[in-house]
Write a structure and sequence with these properties.
The strands form 2 sheets. A 3-stranded parallel beta sheet has the order 4-3-5, with helices on both faces. Strands 1-2 form a two-stranded antiparallel sheet. It has 148 residues and is an alpha/beta fold. It has one domain: P-loop containing nucleotide triphosphate hydrolases (Rossmann fold, 3-Layer(aba) Sandwich), CATH 3.40.50. It is 32% helix and 13% strand.
Length: 148
């Protein structure tokens, strides 16, 4: 006779649908609502593309404007990449549905002295969020803030 298993109360977690076919099914409805989701991967693995698809679907299908702060790809590159999925970032930006902010960070121009202070980036991000009253957020390429 096997030991009795204790009953565990399961609480559902509120989700934000991604609108990405297959991903919402695998994640049980999307990404956790109101929480941070970290995407990891090497250059070219699709982090920015997945994040942009999530933000675009949020803006278009669910009426939730989004902000993308990217440290690797310029707005022009992102625009070209997501155009392959049929998305028009320029139009979404005009309608204040999506704001893309490219932050140029050149590793060779950074001198490491003391502790990191990201206050300036958070102020910039806060301004972007207020500008379009966003719901979704993508911050890509945190590799610039951590040692290899």
């Amino acid at each position: 006779m096997s030991p009795a298993r204790p009953k565990v109360a399961r609480h559902s977690l509120a989700k934000s649908p991604t609108g990405i076919q297959g991903l919402d099914e695998v994640t049980g409805g999307g990404l956790p609502k109101g929480r941070v989701t970290l995407l990891c991967g090497s250059a070219g693995s699709g982090k920015s593309l997945l994040a942009m698809e999530f933000l675009v679907h949020g803006a278009v299908r669910y009426g939730e404007p989004g902000v993308c702060m990217d440290f690797e790809e310029t707005e022009e590159k992102l625009r070209a990449n997501v155009a392959s999925l049929g998305f028009d970032l320029r139009d979404l930006a005009k309608r204040k549905k999506l704001l893309v902010d490219y932050v140029a960070v050149e590793r060779h121009e950074i001198a490491e002295t003391g502790e990191y202070n990201l206050e300036g980036l958070f102020i910039r991000l806060g301004h972007a969020v207020k500008a379009i009253k966003q719901s979704g957020l993508s911050w890509t390429a945190s590799k610039h803030f951590f040692r290899d």
